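From the shared-data thread, chain only:
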Amino acid sequence: MVYTRRSARTVVPAMVLARSSQRRHLARLAEALAPHGIWARVFEDGRPFLRVSNPESEFAVEDVTCERRENGHVFVTSFGMYLGDCDDLDRSVERTARLLGVTPV
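Structure, as tokens:
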């Protein structure tokens, strides 16, 4: 495992630092989904992911990951559906809402 120094006292695995940008993107998506009544929570069990759900349906639940691609980061569902670029939150929110059966505000 590769380690990267953050300060003289703290040594953090490089994998954790690499994932921090993915976690930030997922957290931004979670914040953007909240005004639409969509529940969203970031989990960091291994690779970070965002669990989103429609509070009106016990079955409308999906896990969203953030993947690095050639032109930046994108949001992708657990079954591989592209939700949008991390730089275009409006489109990602709209597609996520539609997937969960929520009408975007």
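The chain has two helices and seven strands.
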